[in-house]
Amino acid sequence: MRQFVIIGHDAPTTAAFSLDDLAGGAGRLDVLCRCVSAAFFLSHDIREDVRVHLVLGGEYTITFDGRTVRRLNPDERSTAALVRNALEEREAAIGHVPVETSPGVSLTRRGFASTLDDAGADGTVVQLHENGDPVVDTEPPDDPVFVLSDHRSFTAEESETLGGHTDRRVSLGPKPLHANHAITVAHNFLDTDGFQSH
Amino acid sequence: MRQFVIIGHDAPTTAAFSLDDLAGGAGRLDVLCRCVSAAFFLSHDIREDVRVHLVLGGEYTITFDGRTVRRLNPDERSTAALVRNALEEREAAIGHVPVETSPGVSLTRRGFASTLDDAGADGTVVQLHENGDPVVDTEPPDDPVFVLSDHRSFTAEESETLGGHTDRRVSLGPKPLHANHAITVAHNFLDTDGFQSH
Asked: What is the CATH number of the domain that holds B14?
């Protein structure tokens, strides 16, 4: 399985945001929605063997599971509606027990460290870093868990948490990419492993 | 320069569409907006040496120029607002003379064939095709012009036009990608040419 953990630093933790202002009042939720889309969509298909964890404001994590997710569309607005729908159930998310808020989408009351503990338990945690090993020189990891940040850098505390879990540091190329573009490139790298000619 | 020509089959040709319904009433303009974002954005930077041509309903073409574009943001809604703003000037687009509708964004009354004639005049037209040469086996082209379609396939007529202009057929990998994801992968391929280690 391929997993993606994405931290939304300014992302909403309540459902009180407008779908008309994702890049403004909703704390750049547009970035996270594009990450979800990049993680799951193929042309006319969904990648089933993928899980995405959006860590919202360090308080809640919303998990999308490709095997069971429904009503997912590639546009930002409809994905944001699934997030808002999930946050409407926030009172039901008690402790670390996930609440399924729509098919294949669940909400858990927990932050980055706990989410990474779980996601990384059975996988290889890959930190995307400009000084990491060039991806073209690396062997594709088993069950990778890619950790990304939204439009902001990781905080010192997040970097420390991530450092404690990281199995590998990998660079996707010489140009710094948006998180959603990094997801697309990571998928392509894994897809094309051994892909030379027909 | 890297250019991307993207055909929007159901895309609006007038400004009479809602920014709240890009994936519905606006004929999947969300797809084209994601393509623009994928073509131009780096983390905290814009790719200046890029030009994007959105062919709308075979009638109008909107061109974004990375050297001069302003007010461009990565979210779908704000890009769609630039498109709507451009289409508000459609009466001023006469013949093949482009009208600048906001800094770095221009509208021309012309369809796919004429747009491709111009874009391909000084570049290498690359058709992305599942049976093309694997990108990892190819030499990066000079001044590539990538031609893509939205959520629909090329029509027979478009395929014939494209066939007449195509210099190379390239496959980006074994999985069929959305147009915006293909743009991201194409950029990464060109960025990382020769990128092996630090």
From this structure: 3.40.1280.10
